Amino acid sequence: MRHPIVVTLCVAGFAALSACEKGIDTAEMDRKFQGVNVIDGTDLNDVMLTVGDPNESVAYFKRASEEQPDRIEFQRNLAASLVRAKRMTEAKTAWAQVVAHPDSIDDDRVQLADALIRAGDWEQAEKVLNAVPPTVETFKRYRLEAMIADSKKEWKKADSFYETAVGLTTTPASTLNNWGFSKLTRGEHAEAERLFTDALRHDPKLFTAKNNLVMARGAQGNYTLPVMSMTQSERAELLHSMALTAIKRGDVEIGKGLLRDALETHPQHFEAAARALSALDSSASGLN
């Protein structure tokens, strides 16, 4: 059943190539084929959802939605593209329109709640999630529930939601990192360290988890970097974070030593570390 799509797209590609060769206005050619692409180009829609520039996706699906206003999939793709483009004010409006569509499903409400949280509207996000039936047990739903509980300092609920969310995904690194940061803000440093370590086991390249792990160790007075993969620049950044943690705990001399290590480690001039060390030296001179 997909042969007409393939043939249509091939014909469109051939026509566009011919247009280039003959010097025909390609914008006019795009207009001739845009209806075909929007209505029948399922594969093209999938491509546009992940295209490099999210604003191109926004433009594509906005046009598609205007041409076919009853097609909820185009509205969904437009809303998702707006989130990718970090245009959150527009994204939450777009997802609200999807939810208002007669063919909307519960997952659309979860997506709306996500957009509301990203836009900083936590209270409305909670109301939207509360309207989602408890039978909707998805990773995203529980991750959002955990974040909302966190924002309200309802720690037991947050932990329960985080644990459930982690069990519902094969890529839990970012959620484990969020959970660990929650523990860090509560002062549960050892538990936070464990969660950051788990996050890095799932995604060794997640720098935010590396940085948070260093801060959790530093908060416990452990000023040695853990064994993990890191670039030279990352190592310098982590030494800088550990230095600031040490200084905050009152271990100023240790912090200064870590800042010097960061300066020596970084492959380029490390302005933040240099500035921090200079400020400490100036403060020490003023006391003498």
UniProtKB/TrEMBL annotation:
Assigned keywords, A-Z: TPR repeat
Coiled coil: none
Organism superkingdom: Bacteria
Keyword Oxidoreductase: no
InterPro entries according to UniProt: TPR-like_helical_dom_sf, TPR_rpt
Keyword field contains Glycoprotein: no
TPR repeat segments: 173-206
Stored Pfam families: TPR_16
Protein's name according to its UniProt entry: Tetratricopeptide repeat protein
